[in-house]
Structures are given as structure tokens and as C-alpha cells.
Amino acid sequence: MAPPAKSIDDRAAVFFAELQDRITAEIEKIDGGGRFREDSWTRPAGGGGRTRVLADGNLFEKAGVGFSDVHGQLRPEMVEALPGDGLDFRATGVSLIFHPRSPRIPTVHANVRHVQHGARSWFGGGTDLTPYYVVPEDAAHFHRTLRDRCDRHDPSFYPRFKRWCDEYFFLPHRNEPRGVGGLFFDYLGAGAETTAGQPPPAASSPHESDAEAMFAFVREVGDAILAAYLPIVERRRTDVWGDRERHWQLVRRGRYVEFNLLYDRGTVFGLRTDGRVESILMSLPPEVRWEYGLLPEPGSPEAESLAAICARRDWARD
Amino acid sequence: MAPPAKSIDDRAAVFFAELQDRITAEIEKIDGGGRFREDSWTRPAGGGGRTRVLADGNLFEKAGVGFSDVHGQLRPEMVEALPGDGLDFRATGVSLIFHPRSPRIPTVHANVRHVQHGARSWFGGGTDLTPYYVVPEDAAHFHRTLRDRCDRHDPSFYPRFKRWCDEYFFLPHRNEPRGVGGLFFDYLGAGAETTAGQPPPAASSPHESDAEAMFAFVREVGDAILAAYLPIVERRRTDVWGDRERHWQLVRRGRYVEFNLLYDRGTVFGLRTDGRVESILMSLPPEVRWEYGLLPEPGSPEAESLAAICARRDWARD
């Protein structure tokens, strides 16, 4: 007798746990020195996870890759914020953020997740790149890699999810995007009318209610993260930098902190569901500066980088 | 003919502007090197201010003292959050934060303000101390100074406003108070039933609806800020410290950032009323660290300091 088929949420959890293994192994290899330290934890109200952080590596000042699979009861005020009904939820996924030591190497963030709430369940995620010094060919490589992977599933995905990313990773108080963007998507596989919270900026495709097809897409995105990012690390790892570039990096990291604490839904969701604080806030950069009224000198590489970020270009265009 | 009596909000604005002058002069004197740089600004939607920041002083790594007097129309979703009615508002006050270079000297924050919303107006404010290494006699000096000044106006003020401060400057996700507390108060002089937003933890005194009496109290608090803080600076300025103490200071400053961006009402109010971003975020420390899973060694001075903060003692008790 064949074993019973596993549910999609169980299979997603297995994929995410393995994805964490593959990513941490590749990061240790390219870093060539740092090692991830793992904390396995259980959530008193249900579920748990494995948080892995590499600190003070050769290339990475801080790299965090978290796997979690939590379940339980939502706080009543959160029920309305999500598709589905009732209090029962399960959320599983991988979140990562890499803060390189060199200001010449961009910071990258990625997340893939599966959420179940009552009778509804869906996939979400994305990845976005935050350079300190924008190199157009690097931003183009990142976006083209994502576009090519998206196009294998649906030609509407890349333009829609690129735009959603631009809208999401934006600091309204600064009127600045966080970086050069990437992909952001949510509610895939949940059915037609599931646009609670922040709706996608364009109409959804018919097969977006097909949970298996969307699981295949999310596996593609999970596999694409390092394909989009690591070639940039390889290109920039020997680029020279000094105090000036480090200073700019630390100031720009302040914007990262502002975004995550003021606006990021994952941070807010995590803190409101009594998530593990150290795992949620592992995204924060290791060292940061805030300086009052700092503006880059007009015409400087810093000013040009900021202008390139604010322009929100179509980086994938050939 | 005598000139027409000025309204209480105009007189409050004059007091706050002069308070900024006195405080910045005293801070430059004790620093003995740093100078405040002033930015005067106007708010397109109404009013303006003077932001003064001293960076890289002898004692102060960053000291910010902001005066503002802004008015205009609230965003509709904010009307409910404040006593009063309609969209018209005026808010004037002084906010300050001093980040000393030495981890032996505490950070201090203070604010005194007058807010008018429709037919209602009130005073609010407070001051709180955030030591990196708690010295009980310093915390006692800070609290006793505030208690003595409060007692001149109402014996219920110090215990109530001390408790409100403990409740307000608290990081629920860390289950940690921000520091050793001080005073926090709001809605003074507005009348009886004005407890919108966060209500005071105890019943109000009858003369709290007397705007003139509450203005006198706020002047007392404004004058008490440096009386409570500067003697601590003088006591600790020659205390030795090294890399270990600096590291702890930078990590603890991370908690300050977390509080201000996740919870602080002034920050949220400022960003939602299209306030001047650099003036609102001048409160953020100049240099900060986040380290995953950092816990002070049991029995170390850092662990003892954190325990003293979490104990929320009655520091003023003789």
C-alpha cells in the first residue's frame, strides 16, 4: 500500500527546511571562513524553527537564514488582516538576509513562505537587493535572473511582482525606495478574491488559484535567490573600499533599520504573534550609523547611487 | 493702554523657544568643545521650528534639541486619537536627546509640549534616563529631583507620572523597560474626560483642568531637566571605560532605536503629520550595533545593570 500523500503545507515545510540547508552550505563555501551557528527553538504556543546566523565571516559581516514552521491561534485583531477565517493558522518558510562587510557588495533579503489560515492557504515571498553603490550591470543581472525564472511560470509575474516589490520596499517618510528592488508576491494559490492586506497591483492570472502550480513557482524562486545574488558577490569581492565607503554603508544601513521597524509586515506579524524576537530581528544590520542632515555631495558616487535607487529603473531591460 | 494678554499657546511657544536657548547654552558649556548647528525650517502645511544638533563633542557624541511650533490640519484618521474635535491643530514644544560618548554617562530624553486640537488644549511631556551601567545613586538623584519639583505642584504627580513613564518606555517584545524611567504625563489642563490615546494610570487631580497651573508645572519640568541630568554627567565624566563598555553601549542603543521606531508616539505622530524627518529622527543614536542572541554573562556588570533596569525600582525612595 502506498503511503498517504502528504499535504501541500507539509511538503512546503520540507522544501523550506532543505532550502535552508542548501543556502547555508553555499554561503559558508563562498565566505570561506565564517560558520553558521544554529539555534533550534520551539514556540510555546505551537511549532518552532531553526535560526542560523553567521557572524564576522570573511565576506559576510552578518548572514542570517531562518527556517520556521509555527502554528496556533491568531490574536483576534489579526484575523481580518489575512485571507481565511477563524483563529487557526500555520506559517512556514525561510527568511534570509546577508549583510556583507564590503560596501561594494549589496545586501540581499529573501523570503519564501506558505501560510494557512482557516480554510485558506497561500504562498508568498520575494527577494530584493540593496546596493550601497549601484552597479547597473549587477542590478540587471539580479532582475534578469528573476525575470527568467518567473517567465517559466507566467509572463505576467515578473512585471507585476517587480512593481509590487517597488511599492512594498519603499520608505514614505524618506520618499526613497529601500534599494533596486526585485520581486514581492503574496496570496498565490489562495483562490480569486484573496487580496486582504496589501493587494497585488494588477489582476491575478487564472492559474494563481492552483496551489500546486504556485508551489512549483515558489520552489523556483527559492532556488533562484543565490543564482541572482552570488555572481554579484563574486564580481565585487575584490573591489577596493575605505573609510568613506564604509561610512556611507553604515548610514544607508540605517534606512534598512527604519524600513524593517517602521513598515515591514514580517517584522510586525512576527512580533504580534509572539514570535522569537532574536529570529525576527536577526535582519537588523550588525553596525549602523545615523547622522543628522547627512546629504551626499552632489555629483559624488554616493549621490549617483541614491539617484539610481530613487529612479526605480526597469533594470531587466536588455 | 496695556497690550492684549497673549494666549496660553503663544506664551507656551515663547517659553519653549527660550528653554531651547538655555539648554543648548548649558550643554555647550559642559561639553567644552562641541557647538550646536542650527537648522531653521518651515513646514509647508504650517509653522516651523529650529533644530539644533551638536555632533562629535567632547562629552556628547550627539546632542539634539529641537523646538517646533507647527499647525494645520490633522489627517482624518488622527482625529480620534487625540482629545478635541475637528482637524485644526497646533503643537509646540521642545524635544531633546543627549547621547554621551562615554558608556558611563546615561542617555537622557526629555520633551515638553502644548497641543491644541479644536476646542481642547493641553500640556504633556516628561523625561527619562537610560543608563548603560546603572549607578543607583545617579538614578536616585534623577528621580528625587523630579519628585521634589512635582511635589511643589501636586503630591500625586510624581508617583502617577513615574508609573506612566514605566508603562510607556517599555519594549514589550523584549519584556524590558527602556531605562530607569522618570516622568511621563499628558492631557494636563485639558479638562476632566480627556484621556484619549493612552490614559494616565490613576485618576486625575481636580486642578489638572487649570491650564495656567499646568503651564506652571510644565515650566517647572522644563527647568528641572538639566538639574536632574547634569550632576550625573559631572559625576561620571572621568569614569574610565574601554572596548567592552563601548560594545555594551552600542548594543543597548539598539534597544533605543527599537523603541523609537516601533512604539514612540512622538515619532509616529511626527511622521504621520508630515513632520520634518531629520528633526524627528535626530533622536536616533549616532552609532549602534545589533548582535544576534547576545546575552550578558551572568553576574557581569552588564547583567546586573540590565537586572536593575528590569526591576523598575522606586529609585526616589530615601
Shape, per Cα inertia axes of chain A: globular
| Name of the level-1 CATH class of chain A | Alpha Beta
| CATH fold title of chain A | oxygen-dependent coproporphyrinogen oxidase
Oligomeric grouping of the chains: homodimer
What is the CATH homology-level superfamily of chain A? Coproporphyrinogen III oxidase, aerobic
Average pLDDT rating of chain A: 92
In the predicted model, the low-confidence regions of chain A spanning at least 5 consecutive residues are 192-199
| Number of separate structural domains of chain A | 1
- Quantity of strands of chain A, as a count: 10
Give the key terms:
about 325 residues; globular; two-stranded antiparallel ribbon; alpha+beta; oxygen-dependent coproporphyrinogen oxidase; homodimer; 10 strands
In words, what does this structure look like?
The structure is a homodimer of 318-residue chains. With 318 residues, chain A is of the alpha+beta class. The first copy, chain A, has one domain: oxygen-dependent coproporphyrinogen oxidase. Chain A has eight helices and ten strands. In chain A, the strands form two sheets. Chain A has a seven-stranded antiparallel beta sheet with strand order 1-2-3-4-5-6-9. A two-stranded antiparallel sheet of chain A has the order 7-8. In chain A, strand 7 (170-171) and strand 8 (176-177) form a beta hairpin. Residues 192-199 of chain A have low confidence and may be disordered. The interface between A and B is medium-sized, with 29 and 29 residues. Strand 10 (287-289) of chain A pairs antiparallel with strand 10 of chain B, so a sheet runs across the interface.
